[in-house]
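One example copied in:
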Amino acid sequence: MADEEAKKAKQAEIERKRAEVRKRMEEASKAKKAKKGFMTPERKKKLRLLLRKKAAEELKKEQERKAAERRRIIEERCGHCCDVDNANEEQVKKILGTYHKRIGNLEDEKYDLEYLVKKKDFEISDLNSQVNDLRGKFVKPTLKKVSKYENKFAKLQKKAAEFNFRNQLKVVKKKEFTMEEEEKEPKKSEKAEWQKK
């Protein structure tokens, strides 16, 4: 009996340890899952696919809406197409008269709109200049390109002109300051020594 009780106690101890290890492993796996978060890679893929489908549907709906709006505006502006082929001469003249009036009205509207646009542009530029004046910021004019070398050459020539002292000296023609050698210049009629031979 003592052996059986010892075996049972030993078995119970082993079972308790196994249960403890299982519990720790389950907690560790739960912690890993908690760290992974709600978005698993499979869920991310599904979500991406759903978002793409939704975006494609929205884009398609937007294109259809724009096309319908365009058709409506074209019909509104152009009117219905008149059947000129099966009409007699009076009906054709009537149709052409209505088209002519419509074109005239459209040209008038176009002219008025162009005038308004020019007026608004002028006002905008005027207000911009006023704002810049108040701020103290002025539009810098675009500068033309100038060669660096031309400036350098001009400076060098200026310096060379400054060193040319002979141009700045006064010419004196009094004979008191002339040297004796200059007085003994050979006359033009006399020949030099090397020419005499």
Remarks:
- The chain has a mean pLDDT of 82.
- Residues 89-135 form the longest helix (47 residues).
- The radius of gyration is 53 Å.
- Helices lie at 2-36, 41-78, 89-135, 148-163, 180-183, 193-196.
